[in-house]
Amino acid sequence: MTEVKDLITTAKEKGSFPTLMKAAEKLKLVNKYSNEGPFTIFAPVESAFEPIPDEVIDESFDDHGYLLGIINYHIVEGKYTTKELAELTELETISGNKLKIAVKNGIKVDTANIIEADIECSNGIIHAIDEILIP
């Protein structure tokens, strides 16, 4: 059996979330999400960033408050598997906003589809999504 690692280590090892990991490092969140929890992270895969012009991403990275607001909209306290998500209609993010949850050809979180579910971590769970969530 493979060792279950923390959220940050798992996300880095997956290799699917380089822009998200860059944001976590820029905002100095690596330690928090390596050691605290449990958290559920709806993690946009790299292709989710492709429609956004590079200069918009660069500007977002320079505005820490804005970037933190976006990141915090992807994180929920507690550990929610897809089985548990399927029984909910909304979840409150750590930013205090509500994410809409719907079961429709899989599970949707706001407008994003979960494309890889239930990535187990020692301090939570990651669900890879195909879009960036905007509060």
Question: What is the CATH superfamily classification?
Answer: FAS1 domain
Q: Calculate Rg over CA atoms.
A: 14 Å
- Strand composition percent: 25-35%
What is the domain total for the residues? 1
The strand order across the widest sheet is: 2-1-7-6-5-4-3
Order of helices and strands: HHHEHHEHEEEEE
- Count of helical segments? 6
- Biggest β-sheet description: 7 strands, mixed
Label the CATH architecture: Roll
Percent in helix: 25-40%
GO molecular function: cell adhesion molecule binding
Organism: Methanolobus profundi
Protein name: Uncaracterized surface protein containing fasciclin (FAS1) repeats
InterPro entries: Adhesion/Biosynth-related (IPR050904), FAS1_dom_sf (IPR036378), FAS1_domain (IPR000782)
Question: Topology, pairings included?
Answer:
Elements: H1 7-14, H2 18-26, H3 30-35, E1 39-44, H4 54-62, H5 64-72, E2 75-77, H6 82-85, E3 90-92, E4 98-103, E5 107-109, E6 112-121, E7 124-129
Parallel strand pairs: 1-7
Antiparallel strand pairs: 1-2, 3-4, 4-5, 5-6, 6-7
Helix pairs in contact: 2-5
What is the structure about, briefly put?
Pfam families: Fasciclin. By secondary structure, the chain is of the alpha+beta class.
Walk me through what this model shows:
GO terms for molecular function: cell adhesion molecule binding. This is Uncaracterized surface protein containing fasciclin (FAS1) repeats. The chain has 135 residues and is of the alpha+beta class. It has 6 helices and 7 strands. It has one domain: FAS1 domain. Strands 2-1-7-6-5-4-3 form a 7-stranded mixed sheet. The longest helix has 9 residues. The model has no long low-confidence stretch (mean pLDDT 95).
